[in-house]
Amino acid sequence: MDDSFKKSIPDGVQDYAPLECKNKRSVEESLRKNFELWGYNEVQTPAFEYYDVFAHGIGSYRQEKLIKFIDSDGRILALRPDLTLPIARLVTSTHENLTFPLRFFYVDDAFGYDNPSARYQRQFTQAGIELIGDSSPYADAEVISMAIESLYTAGLTNFTIDIGQVDYFKGLIEEANLSEEQGEALRRGIDTKNMIEVDNILSDSKVNSELKAKILELPFLYGGEEILEKAKKFAANERSQKAVENVGKIYGTLCSYGYERHLSIDFSMLQEIDYYTGMIFKGYVMELGAPLLGGGRYDSLLAEFGRTLPSTGFALSMKGVLIAMEKQSGLKENIDVDVVVGHDEVSAKAAFVLLKKHRDEGIRAASTMGKNQEETLEYAEKIGAKEVYYIKNNKAEKIK
After folding, report:
1. Looking at the domain assignment, is residue 347 inside a domain?
2. Which of 123, 177, 189, 304 could form a disulfide with 56 if both were Cys (CB 3.0 to 4.6 A apart)?
3. Residue 28 to residue 12: CA distance in whole angstroms
4. What element of type H or E holds 196?
5. Are both 196 and 57 inside the same structural domain?
């Protein structure tokens, strides 16, 4: 056995030291409170499920990147790569009487290999929501509103939410009469802005010059409200037209809520996960080279589990949020302990009583475990304690 592995951890996972963990938990708790204020209820699903749960809707790339193992019965299990699929399974398998729309939220870990949205972590914490049972653009607007408010909750103010619509692209693919394989290759090329590859695909498929020009223009259909009119002129097919109208309703609703300064429209945005059916969106900050949140509408996903329900939601990367917070608004720089109590050898009980009194009042209080007065003061100074007591012969004295 190589002893070097005793002091190291696998690639793609990390430890959280006390201060890092304190900041992470603080943000998670703030997000939980925010989700609850919007009427959402927390759910929790197993860290691993039968592989069958993930056999649909996430694409072959993600299936290859699942962390899989075999149980004692020989069944293939997989660590969940995201939280949406397990929640879809939960909703469709529950026997409880459900009142729609369902509003669920989660703050939990997901797992996988080389997940770009998680900055290549193999274990990553996501916080997010699922709004199930409402197909209106107002539901999509609520989800995006909550994404914005979640970033506010984390102390972020400088960010952009890009809104797209997968049916716009799908309409163009149908108009071009491309095969599913050609369409997927084209989607990858446009999503990565590889326009040479896009041009080659369109040339090989013999798309007419007018439609080819429109598809090549897709990466430039990005901006404010003016993009809606431009996108309408570009796509004459009914599916793409309806996609533009849908984005217009969502965008207009969000602007009426006062979020316009954070919004942009991007019809070239095409999600990697293939269960999205309508509106999609991503959240960006200048400090990160990848989205820190993403989501959209997935009306067909629950049908894979036997029940058709319109659904929309989003997930944010806790790691991404913490990095952005550090650069934009600053993270907590120390762990506050309000009170430190030291004692001599005969005063342990008196120290315990004093410590308990503070703790019962919700004040963080720590003992120096029998250290002398000088050592107690030194320890208190290092951890930034506001008050320091030393008990000698069962008599307490405030020394700071």
Report:
1. yes
2. 304
3. 21
4. helix 195-204
5. yes
Quote the tokens at residue 79: 């660590």
* Amino acid in position 136: S
How far is residue 391's CA from residue 164's CA, in Å, rounded to a whole number? Answer: 65
Instruction: For residue 375, give Cα distances in angstroms to 365, 382, 383, 387, 397.
Output: 16, 11, 13, 15, 15
What is residue 58's predicted lDDT score, i.e. its pLDDT? Answer: 60
Which pLDDT band, with edges at 50, 70 and 90, does 272 fall under?
low
CB-based burial, 273-310: b 16+ in 10 Å, e otherwise: bbbbbbbbbbbbbebbeebbbbbbbbbbbbebbeeebb
pLDDT for residue 270: 83
Residue 333 lies in a domain: no
What band does 60 get if pLDDT is binned at 50, 70 and 90?
low
Note whether 355 and 253 are same-domain residues. no
Q: Domain ends where: 328, 352, 379?
A: 328
Peptide linkage before 81 cis (omega within 30 of 0)? no
For residue 9 the two structure tokens come to 């951890």
**CA distances in angstroms from 72 to 48, 76, 219, listed in the order given:** 14, 10, 49
Parent domain of 355: 339-398
Q: What CATH number is given to the structural domain containing 277?
A: 3.30.930.10
**Residue environment code for 66-96, b if the CB has 16+ CB neighbours within 10 A, otherwise e:** bbeeeeeeeeebbbbbbbbbbbbbbbbeeee
Neighbours of 380 (CB within 10 A): 24
How far CA 363 is from CA of 33, 184, 277, 379, in Å, comes to: 22, 57, 50, 18
Domain boundary among 274, 298, 328: 328
* Helix 238-256 with 137-153: angle, nearest 10 deg: 50
Tokens of 93: 């398998």
State whether 84 and 146 are in the same domain: yes
Residues 294-335 have pLDDT tens digits of 999 999 999 988 899 999 999 999 999 999 998 887 787 777
What are the φ/ψ torsions at residue 253 (nearest 5 degrees)? Answer: -65, -45
Number of domains the chain is built from: 2
Q: By three-state DSSP, how is residue 49 classified?
A: strand
Instruction: Give the phi and the psi of residue 152 in degrees, each rounded to 5.
Output: -60, -45
Q: Are 296 and 364 in a shared domain? A: no
What's the pLDDT tens digit per position in 68-79? 999 999 999 999
